[in-house]
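Handoff note, outgoing to incoming analyst
You'll be picking up this chain. Sequence as last confirmed:
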Amino acid sequence: MDVFAPVRAYAVAESLALSDQHYVQMARYLELMREWNEKFNLTAITDPDQMVSKHVLDALTYLALWSNPPTSLIDVGAGAGIPGLILAMVWPETQITLVESIGKKCTFMRHVASELGLSNVTVINDRAESIGHHPDHREHYHLATARAVADLRTLVEYLLPLCQPNGVVYAPKGPHPDAEVAGAKVAMGRLGGRLRDIVPIVVAGLDGRSMVRIDKVKPTPAEFPRAPGVPSKRPL
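Most recent structure output, in case you need it:
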């Protein structure tokens, strides 16, 4: 049985150009995740079918929302590398930065990038609040994203400072994020963002999803992001 059958069906439905090499890379990535998970707590999802749907297929939903790949992407709270490492495989020209505060997860992501030849990947062991003030990263990225990291009010303080002018935040959420989005409108405005839209994502094999897209319309004030821990304790 082909565990990647849902991915192949999605690729056909969305006209995504996934090669045999992509499937080889994705299979090896999941194999490495299972191996390392025996020593480190990388993921609670270990069933092969669930790993394909909730890791790989979920990450690939980004592709259908872009006519051309972004020039640069930062994935905050990258964990074991979803969606960043999957996107690095299918967007080889996109410079992808993975930010993670837990060192062992960074070690794993570097190992995967090295073994799979993902030369477009940089892994940083740090917090989003610190990276957001670093001159090499502040207002640098075309696309900033984070999966299952925080409520949207907190998330925009992590991500909008990293977006370049005319960049965009992609915040994957559940099927009904309207109340969460409404609660984050003030924070978006203070941080230089403006809601573009909420895109429903309906894919066979996935639970209900949506993508909240926020445009960076003006510079983020210099005082943001606030000190580590403050955005989550006192959201804007």
